Structure to design on (297 residues):
């Protein structure tokens, strides 16, 4: 039964792949018209990783995953933050899915050859469960890493705003304050800011346009709002020193509140092992007495 289940799963996968290759999905007329009317998007502001054994293992299936509409829009934003390429991400999803699909079946076959066969629903259910976990695990991992990097970027952005406020108070212009403040830090977040401002200078665009593009690519609304405020100051002469100081203070307060909330959550989670240890100690103490009472009855 295990062999039949594997043959059926492989046949179904092969038929699906053949159908997706012979009859690829056709975009709608509205999508084609929108594609003609849109301006080309600028290149990413930071490089992505290249190659690896996972890419070689799952590369044959990347085309089929793209045909069904992967990666999703949320995954694309998370991949931009984590500096990972779409090809490697899809290859990793395919490799983990195939591994999860075939590994339980292989273990079931080995047990059957060893004289301890399992009921056929067990390896089939384990295969589909492991394949589902392997399919969604890269998305969850990338999303968690992207959220950590966004949080770190917001903390660095608060410091960046404070530096801009100090430079503006010293009489430096807006563009000079943006560039000089970005040169102070050496972390990943400040390197993104430096690269965005350098790209703006080389392409002869305004710095706030590059910052807005970076905020949209990282999906950090605070940076997009900063770019909008700076554009008003650069084009209409609006005074933004007070607003930048208020925004930096608000971001620091928000970061402190989030850190305090995470600390409280960690404290609550630490109580669970203590309760389990207390329960185990109670069972360990009262178990001999309970056995004696049971035997006496």
């Amino acid at each position: 039964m295990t062999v039949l289940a594997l043959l059926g799963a492989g046949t179904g996968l092969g038929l699906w792949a053949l159908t997706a290759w012979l009859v690829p999905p056709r975009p709608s007329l509205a999508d084609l018209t929108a594609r003609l009317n849109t301006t080309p998007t600028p290149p990413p502001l930071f490089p992505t990783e290249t190659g690896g054994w996972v890419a070689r293992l799952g590369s044959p299936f990347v085309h089929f995953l793209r045909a069904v509409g992967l990666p999703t829009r949320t995954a694309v934003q998370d991949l931009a933050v984590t500096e990972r390429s779409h090809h490697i991400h899809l290859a990793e999803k395919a490799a983990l899915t195939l591994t999860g699909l075939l590994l339980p079946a292989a273990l079931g076959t080995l047990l059957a050859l060893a004289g301890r066969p399992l009921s056929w629903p067990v390896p089939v259910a384990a295969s589909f469960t492991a394949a589902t976990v392997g399919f969604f695990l890269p998305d969850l991992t990338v999303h968690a890493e992207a959220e950590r990097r966004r949080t770190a970027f917001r903390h660095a952005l608060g410091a960046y705003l404070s530096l801009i406020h100090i430079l503006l108070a010293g009489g430096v212009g807006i563009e000079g304050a943006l560039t000089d403040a970005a040169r102070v830090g050496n972390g990943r977040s400040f390197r993104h800011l430096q690269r965005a401002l350098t790209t703006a200078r080389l392409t002869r665009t305004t710095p706030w346009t590059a910052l807005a593009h970076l905020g949209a690519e990282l999906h950090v609304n605070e940076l997009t709002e900063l770019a909008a405020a700076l554009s008003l100051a650069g084009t209409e002469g609006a005074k933004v020193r007070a607003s930048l100081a208020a925004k930096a203070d608000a971001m620091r307060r928000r970061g402190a509140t989030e850190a305090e909330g995470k600390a409280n959550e960690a404290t609550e989670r630490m109580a669970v092992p203590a309760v389990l240890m207390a329960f185990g100690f109670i069972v360990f103490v009262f178990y001999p007495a309970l056995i004696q009472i049971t035997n006496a009855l």
User: Anything to note?
Assistant: The mean pLDDT is 81. The radius of gyration is 28 Å.
